[in-house]
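Worked example 3. Consider a protein that binds zinc ion.
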Amino acid sequence: MPELPEVESVRAGLARHLTGRRVADVEILDPRPLRRQDGGPEAFAQALRGRVITGAARRGKFLWLPLDDGRALSAHLGMSGQLLVRGTAAPAAAAAPGAPLSPPGESPPDLTATRAPSLVRDLSSHPRHLRIRLLLAPRPGDSPGGAALDLVDQRMLGGMRVTELVPTLDGAPGGQGSPEPLVPADAAHIARDLLDPALDWAAAVARARSSRRAIKTVLLDQGIISGIGNIYADEGLWHGGVHGSRRTCALSRQAVERVLRATGGVMERALAVGGTSFDALYVDAEGAPGYFARSLAVYGRAGRECRRCGATLRSEVIGGRSHTSCPRCQRRARDARMTRAGRPL
Ligand SMILES: [Zn+2]
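Given these inputs, the predicted complex is written out as structure tokens:
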């Protein structure tokens, strides 16, 4: 599952390659990703033909492309979905619209270092698992075969739809890459993520602490804080010194904020090197994970030594998800035994 830094790399690439581009036509090779489109595949194609893509925006792991008619193309990439830009001229990274998310003083993520999106120059092929292709109106610099945005999805868990934008509840910008205070209607329930300048930290900590569930489970709840997946939850808990089985309501405000700040910090560092690329789909032939994975402290390291204290890292299941932790650096409460659903026994 791509995590927030991977999705942000994708968003930045889409913004660079698609902003200002007009959709000339839509090819639907498989209608299944459009199952949530009002009006079905024909309405999807009709809503996009002739429209100009005005940017690329993201909240948590949810992506959308605002359109010039005030609506948006929203994309759920699921476990295996990828948006691939093909045949466009590659503008300089310095010309990227929207503020880069990288920490000041660091260069923006190098998209050539990521596995997604693959910025392929050749439109001649229909890749395996190609479901939807948006053909872009030609522009000087495009490859001779033309330019397109492809939805490629092996497992068919992702989808796309053209949807209305609705005002954000707090009046702040919709997300990274969206200066407008608007989000797609189907993203309105998604909380702001840890890299969002408009995140209200005190409210987020309070929201988390109102839950009796394990903090590991709460970190993964996109309605409390969005964008955290299994990798960054485990990393943030290790950096924050809290075991994932602790009931969030039993932790101090300081401890919860420490874990959230640490999780955000890990995601920022991963973003600076183009994401973790840890998903099996993105692992290369030797099984070598992405660049950032080499600096992970706990995720994928059960049975190995803690980088801080040398104790052997352990893995267990909390709320149906694996949790790797250090028995010495991460304190667990005496009453912290959990059911598989992440609730205290
Ligand atoms: Zn340790």
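Take a moment to read the result before moving on. Confidence is low (pLDDT under 50) at residues 92-122, 277-289. Helices lie at 4-18, 40-48, 201-209, 215-219, 230-240, 253-272.
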